[in-house]
Specification:
The longest helix has 16 residues, at about 40-55. The protein has two helices and no strands. The protein has about 55 residues and is mostly helical. The chain is globular. Helix content is about 55%, strand content about 0%. It has a domain at about 20-55.
């Protein structure tokens, strides 16, 4: 599985956002991220980008 690696010199400030999901939805998200070979963070960023493009 691909992981996000960022060198310390390129690290960007981050804010942790907590989400409460049903066990079924959490499992689906994890499986989709694994299927794509990306982290949950990368999957969420992809989803958010698509959402912003389609809801503008």
């Amino acid at each position: 599985m691909k992981t996000d690696t960022t060198s310390p010199s390129k690290a960007q400030p981050r804010k942790i956002v907590g989400l409460s999901l049903s066990p079924e939805v959490a499992a689906e998200l994890k499986m989709e991220a694994a299927r794509r070979g990306v982290s949950l963070r990368a999957l969420f960023l992809e989803m958010w980008t698509l959402y912003k493009k389609t809801s503008a």
